[in-house]
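As a warm-up, study this chain.
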Amino acid sequence: LAGGVKPTPHLKLRSPEPLGWDVARLLQSSCDPVDEGLCPVPAARTILILTSTLYMALACAGQTQEQQYLSEQQAALSSVYAMQVIPSGTYTIGCTTRQGDRCDDDEKASHDVILTQPYLMGETEVTQGLYESVMGSNPSRFTSCGSNCPVEQVSWYDAVAFANALSARHGLLECYRISINGKSVTMPNGLHCGGFRLPTEAEWEVAARGGQDLRHSGSNNIDEVAWYDANSNEMTHPVAQKKPNAWGLYDMSGNVWEWCWDWYGNYPTNASVDPVGPRDGSFRVYRGGSWYYGP
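Now compare it with the structure written out below.
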């Protein structure tokens, strides 16, 4: 990555220079841009964090009913993939004063996003055990870490295929339409698809911040919340071993990178409602830092 520079795992950055763990927007740059989603990437860079959009069944209902419905679905899915409710609202993302001078130009300026519906977010990174049970194989480099460690070596296309497969297994509507050659992926029903999907970048960052403005997801002390180069022993670790953030999400800092839905592009300059990123592009966004990167 960028000539071997080890990025700093703080709340910052969207480019392949000193990288942050949380607001960082790292691009997969080792492959032909046309096929970037098909290229296997280093273990440090990929994981899956899925969002359930089941709440859309009550998109027009009152807030109390939505929360009740989400709680019911959270309980129903707990044996499959533990999830936490992320509330709707207006949130500030991008470079804040907490990051100070550690921000790159493409993460400026901070701006508001309005998420009109609550959603369920995976409590942990998708594990090797869950991925293999759904897909029949485990592509991970760190298989010796065990079934409760995050799956890695997963391309963006692998991620959306897994989301569809998990939805189908549990009788939910598949969110993605994937072409026969696997190179074209659309979301016909948008964010209202009704099954498992990747989070948008805005959804990911809102969840990672957990309603707080901290340097890392859940703490200003990196060792409390993240596996990174100084404490990882050069490998991934089982999920949920560190402190969660305020919304009960683990490993949003470090351990392994996490795919988002969005194409990489400039941040909007004004507030946006339920943003899904640029219409097209050459690279997909992934976030969160990894076991390999650190101060």
